[in-house]
Specification:
Blueprint: H1 6-19, E1 36-42, E2 45-56, H2 60-67, H3 73-76, E3 82-89, E4 92-101, E5 106-114, E6 118-120, E7 123-133, E8 135-148, E9 151-162, H4 168-191
Antiparallel strand pairs: 1-2, 2-9, 3-4, 4-5, 5-7, 6-7, 7-8, 8-9
């Protein structure tokens, strides 16, 4: 009678699993990679911008089309509680955004003016700056660059400067979380078209 140790059974199961894959096929990851959160120092405020980046398995132009679809920002993430185009000024687009912060204890709203996408050093940049709102400042900057055939990299920086005395680190953490949800929503939408 043959006896197998638990480790040899695991090795055998892994080998059988690999052999069951069609030639040239790789197993798809159970969970797609998560966004990376980070903060960005800015000369505009002592509060740092909250930001997130993620890789997307599609071309950069498809990603740019998604980030320019302002009216559907609410479908990218629940962090943009309300999003709608409220006007145009030449080539610029005015967008109303409402974002809950401090775990929903407060809501930030602003009308941002987004200029057309500009090319800068191989990247496509879409930036919006606050025209009016219930905060001192709200800026958003999307950056998209190709990272290979049918691959792109997307980043979102959000700077929110509240009127109320709130610790900057708390605001940065909240905006990084919102940026994470937004870039993840872009990735999910782009990869499941």
């Amino acid at each position: 009678m043959y006896r197998f140790s638990p480790s040899s059974l695991l090795t055998l199961a892994a080998l059988v699993g690999c052999l069951a894959l069609p030639s040239g096929a790789a197993a798809e990851p159970a969970n797609p990679p998560k966004a990376q959160r980070f903060s960005v120092k800015t000369p505009l405020s002592s509060i740092q911008a909250g930001a997130a980046r993620i890789d997307v398995a599609t071309d950069a132009q498809s990603v740019v089309q998604i980030i320019q679809d302002f009216g559907n920002y609410g479908k990218l993430t629940d962090k943009f509680e309300k999003a709608r185009v409220v006007g145009r000024s030449g080539a610029d687009t005015d967008v109303y955004l409402q974002v809950p912060i401090l775990k929903g204890a407060a809501k930030i709203w602003a009308v941002l003016r987004f200029s057309p996408v500009r090319n800068s050093n191989g990247e496509q940049v879409l930036a919006g700056h606050m025209l009016k709102g219930n905060v001192e400042r709200l800026d958003a900057k999307w950056t998209v660059r190709p990272s290979g055939a049918q691959q792109s990299h997307v980043e979102l920086e959000l700077l929110i400067v509240p009127k109320l005395p709130v610790p900057g680190s708390l605001v940065t953490r909240e905006t990084a979380y919102a940026a994470d949800k937004a870039v993840t929503g872009v990735r999910d939408r782009a990869e499941h078209k």
